[in-house]
Amino acid sequence: MSGPAIHVFGGTSDARLICQALDAAGESYRLSVATDTGKQLAGNIAGEVVVGRMDKDEMADFLASRQVRWVVDASHPYADVLHRNVAAACRRLQLPLTRYQRPSDIDAIAHPLLHKTDSLEAACAIARPLGRRVLLTTGSKDLAAYRQNLPDKHLLVRVLPTAAVLAQCEALGLGVEQIIAQCGPFSDAFNQALYEHCRPDVVITKESGAPGGYQQKVAPCLALNIPCIVICRPAPAEDAAPADRVASLDEFTQRLSLWRAQRGS
Q1: Residues 91, 153: one domain?
Q2: Which residue from 127, 154, 179, 261 has the least number of CB within 10 angstroms?
Q3: Can you give the pTM of this predicted structure?
Q4: Residue 68, helix vs strand vs coil
Q5: By C-alpha distance, which of 42, 214, 37, 242 is closest to 141?
Q6: Residue 141 belongs to domain spanning
Q7: Alpha-carbon distance 261 to 265, whole Å?
């Protein structure tokens, strides 16, 4: 079985932009996403979209059977397991790998009420003495871990409005008054109104960068004198040479031009 020479791992707005750049360049490609939500985020792109999770062996078999020649990892900054699996599959097949790293703006805001940490457990330790009402804007993936680490807190969770996510919240015992089902990113004013309505004692979020509205989440929180805990991104895996890391669409376009030149030689 053969197919497009380029395979993109995505499920983010970053991946959609990369796919649109490939469309503009007239390149065929295939996009992998983990969930149907990731497929929706891809929007109206020309490439085939494959839905489903794969481990490193399944990835290697998939890429080999389709004669892929270049892999682009544009998955979520916090998808460290996926990053490692993609890297392992590419090493096994000796495939070139380009990793898109969303630029960080973690240092754009400094404030006495802004706490930066490197893990969920550390974030929960900081949150415990700060009040009962904890607003999570960290997504649905780790809700069970937050329930376990903050059993005495009244959790408020902002999550994607999908049936699967809402069922997950319900299974964890979260009531309707605790679930805020919305699809972002959101403006400063929107987030400020949310904080004023929910009245959290502390907010826990992630270092999501500009596409995830990091500053728009943090600034109004601090303006209202609400402590904000940010879980920083995992350290980048040693999965690709420095030359194969890109942090902007322009850098990706340059890398694409180089790949096309090498392919033609």
Answers
A1: no
A2: 261
A3: 0.81
A4: coil
A5: 37
A6: 114-231
A7: 6
